[in-house]
Amino acid sequence: MSDWRLMGQAMDVARRAAGRTSPNPMVGALVVRGGVVLAEGWTQPLGQDHAEPHALKQLRGKAEGATLYVVLEPCCHWGRTPPCTDIIVRSGISRVVVGTVDPFPLVSGRGIQALRDAGIEVLVGVREDECKRLNRGFLKAVTHGLPEVTLKAGMSLDGRIASEAGESRWITGPAARARAHELRDSHDAVLVGIGTVLADDCALDTRLPGGRNAVPVVLDTWLRTPPGAKVLTAGRRPLLLCGEDAPEVDLPADIVRLPRGPGGVDLGAALRAIAARGHHHLLVEGGATVHRALLGGNYVDRMELFVNGRVLAGGPGFASGPGFGLSDAPSFRFVSSVPVGDDLHIVLEHLEG
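Now predict its structure.
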């Protein structure tokens, strides 16, 4: 089996940790000897094993002459867990194949050098772009202080997220809604604007067997979230992002006061506050004003759109506010388009430049 193929398998293993590693990256590791996968591991919840020791423990720490495939450079410093490089060296691994370098300052090439200094052969950069994309949230948080932003919406064929009368339940069908809950399960936090909370009294929890709740985040400039709102009690303790001049309130939430920007809380400050709490993968679920503001600020990395075949010909659009010109409109490339029940699930990624 080739390095290319085995790194792909390591990425598949890493995806098992989606939404469960914050603030750590999701990493997959394979221990291979003679073309046979002896063990596989993935990043465990915070404070538990990283991917490499998770795999090596299955071999009781012994892997003489084997090759380790790992999506991200192994750590070489003490944190909540011991350095992965020390564990790898003690195991007898003779070769390590790394997908991409970890930009975190305490690692950033030092892990690779520590392995080479111990006499281990290290190959770096196998399927590098794909490994970077897998952990784009972590990498973006480390290098720019921002989370990866995925915008999700259910809409009609003509781009409406509600009818002219305000009906939004349900534009899309059960299969699409189940997939939307899978997205919540795989993200660290899910964000809406206060308008969505007041209109829908959304819980923002994950309704899947064995699912876990992302942290609810509300952009609430004036702290208008009602004391009885479902978002305050349905899942994990929510994060309310308000203006510095918002009134004092007593709510079961973490309240962060931020500078004001055009139309509400400064979005850059809001996203930095989210990333600073270790929430590197952010799912945005509306509403239309929030969508427009994030798109206008060039903050959206990815879109997951669920499109139903009906035409509403009225009601709020997917993004509302001042229009973009053709030359400055946010642009995305189509990644996939797959039927989900009676709806179409479209995935797009932002085009840089």
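The radius of gyration is 22 Å.
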